[in-house]
Predict the 3D structure of the following.
Amino acid sequence: MLLRLFVKEGAEVQVVITPSGKEFITPVTLSALSNKPVICDFFGANTGEWNSHVELGLWADLMVVAPATASTLGKMANGIADNMLVTTYMSMRCPVMVAPAMDFDMFRHTANQKNIETLQSFGNIILEPGEGELASGLVGKGRMKEPEAILEAAVNHFGQKKN
């Protein structure tokens, strides 16, 4: 898992997840791996505490959006800040790496390709998806880049691996 690799490398990680992302993996699991509460909403459910996307934008040295779904790509490319992830992205002052992940036909769709080009034009680093078997059972380009390769891209971005 990507989060585990970043933590093992010594990174301090703050997970920001979309509401749909919580359908795939529980925030409890991510919190246990990161040793931090997972942020999904603008306000804490139990405390009413405001989760500041601005503070996250100032705090981070690198933002990695992985997996980046077609919906998230479209929202990021068009400034649709209707969830905590995209709002945080729009507040980032640091570099942003984006790892698209979706089915082959979705990935190659003109709208997604345009969104990826737009994100690149904003200065985002696109981590090209791989080819292989997809969640649908089809085979093609669209698999999220392997977690080890994403970590390697982040490490290379900072110049050298920590020991």
